[in-house]
């Protein structure tokens, strides 16, 4: 498992996300617990931070998520790697297993959920043409890849100056398809202050894997 946890959490304004607490635990603690079963756990931390946790290797992260994942990839040894967002604390074990199985089968996989809301184009601040939401999906993590495939995708991106918001985009840019598997709405990403209210509520009823 690769965990790029070096983000500053600017949109939340509460400091590095990895140390943000939900339900009395940091987001980093949630992520490490969700992957307690993993043979390999590598975590990228913000500059100036260091930790010691049994079975976990901590490395200094980069300026961006993409740089942090690349740093972790260089140290990873597993045939298949899962890349997860530390800001998604509520990971159901079944989702991780679906991604892992699909990554072994197809080389790359990502969990997705349906789009529940109406989608439109913003035309200069006015309600524009609707988009067919049935054709779109919301992408989550963990995303799974053959380690060598993802490393090749990152190296190509670095050579060409390509930046992406997730690793599946880099693999797709390499020309390799990414299989989709069923995600879980509870694995939403904590990005804005109001997300913390939802997270605190879910933490009260969340059952450990």
From TrEMBL:
Major enzyme class: transferase
Ranges annotated as spanning the membrane: none
Catalytic reaction equation(s): 2-C-methyl-D-erythritol 4-phosphate + CTP + H(+) = 4-CDP-2-C-methyl-D-erythritol + diphosphate
UniProt pathway: Isoprenoid biosynthesis; isopentenyl diphosphate biosynthesis via DXP pathway; isopentenyl diphosphate from 1-deoxy-D-xylulose 5-phosphate: step 2/6
Keywords: Isoprene biosynthesis, Nucleotidyltransferase, Transferase
Record-linked Pfam families: IspD (PF01128)
SUPFAM superfamilies given in the database record: Nucleotide-diphospho-sugar transferases (SSF53448)
EC numbers, comma separated: 2.7.7.60
InterPro entries assigned to the protein according to its UniProt record, in alphabetical order: IspD, IspD/TarI, IspD/TarI_cytidylyltransf_bact, ISPD_synthase_CS, Nucleotide-diphossugar_trans
GO process annotations (BP): isopentenyl diphosphate biosynthetic process, methylerythritol 4-phosphate pathway
PROSITE patterns per UniProt: ISPD (PS01295)
Molecular function via GO: 2-C-methyl-D-erythritol 4-phosphate cytidylyltransferase activity
Site (Transition state stabilizer): 11, 17
Site (Positions MEP for the nucleophilic attack): 133, 189
Superkingdom of this protein's organism: Bacteria
Keyword Metal-binding: no
NCBIfam families: ispD
PANTHER family in the cross-refs: 2-C-METHYL-D-ERYTHRITOL 4-PHOSPHATE CYTIDYLYLTRANSFERASE, CHLOROPLASTIC (PTHR32125:SF4)
Physiological role: Catalyzes the formation of 4-diphosphocytidyl-2-C-methyl-D-erythritol from CTP and 2-C-methyl-D-erythritol 4-phosphate (MEP).
Family named by the database record: Belongs to the IspD/TarI cytidylyltransferase family. IspD subfamily.
Protein name as annotated: 2-C-methyl-D-erythritol 4-phosphate cytidylyltransferase
Species the sequence originates in: Allomeiothermus silvanus (strain ATCC 700542 / DSM 9946 / NBRC 106475 / NCIMB 13440 / VI-R2)
Lineage: Bacteria, Thermotogati, Deinococcota, Deinococci, Thermales
Recorded name of the encoding gene: ispD
């Amino acid at each position: 498992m690769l965990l790029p946890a070096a983000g500053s959490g600017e949109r939340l304004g509460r400091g590095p996300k990895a140390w943000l607490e939900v339900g009395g635990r940091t987001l980093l603690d949630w992520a490490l617990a969700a992957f307690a079963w993993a043979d390999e756990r590598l975590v990228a931390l913000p500059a100036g931070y260091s930790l010691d946790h049994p079975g976990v290797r901590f490395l200094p992260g980069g300026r961006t998520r993409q740089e942090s994942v690349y740093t972790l990839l260089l140290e990873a040894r597993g045939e298949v790697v899962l890349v997860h967002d530390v800001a998604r604390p509520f990971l159901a074990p079944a989702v991780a297993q679906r991604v892992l199985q699909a990554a072994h089968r197809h080389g790359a996989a990502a969990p997705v959920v349906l789009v529940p809301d109406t989608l439109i184009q913003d035309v200069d601040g006015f309600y524009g043409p609707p988009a067919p939401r049935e054709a779109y999906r919301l992408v989550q993590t963990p995303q799974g890849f053959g380690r060598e495939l993802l490393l090749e995708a990152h190296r190509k991106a670095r050579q060409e100056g390509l930046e992406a918001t997730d690793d599946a985009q880099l693999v797709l840019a390499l020309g390799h398809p990414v299989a989709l598997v069923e995600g879980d709405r509870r694995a939403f990403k904590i990005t804005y202050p109001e997300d913390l209210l939802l997270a605190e509520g879910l933490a009260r009823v969340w059952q450990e894997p």
